[in-house]
Specification:
single chain, alpha/beta, 5-stranded mixed beta sheet, 3 helices
């Protein structure tokens, strides 16, 4: 199990993000994300997702129930990972999005594109 360390609080007092990567099987990985996913913390998610979505024939499950805030940068991280899967053959699915995540996915229409 790999853990990406939380980022320090930014100047505005945003909560850090934690990203936990757990291999479920050889071809299935669970990525659990908690906290604020924003401009300052999205790179942690990018760093965790990139090697997984570039591995073709791999299913990446992103569990978002503990996300308390999602801005456009965090949303872009998820979309970017999804776009990468289109060319690599990997698959990405969002699991149990929290109410703030559900709202952002619905408002932007991303819930119609990404598997939720």
């Amino acid at each position: 199990m790999d853990n990406v360390p939380p980022t320090p609080d930014d100047e505005q007092g945003d909560a850090p993000v934690t990203v936990e990567v757990r291999r479920l099987t050889a071809q299935r990985t669970l990525v659990t994300v908690a906290g604020h996913l924003d401009l300052h913390t999205a790179p942690c998610l990018d760093d965790a997702l990139h090697p997984l979505v570039t591995d073709g024939e791999h299913l990446v499950l992103v569990e978002l129930s503990a996300i308390t805030f999602l801005d456009s940068t965090g949303l872009t991280s998820l979309i970017s990972a999804y776009r990468t899967t289109l060319s690599t053959g990997a698959r990405l699915a969002l699991i149990a999005p929290s109410p703030p995540v559900q709202k952002m996915l619905h408002l932007t229409g991303v819930d119609q594109v990404l598997s939720v």
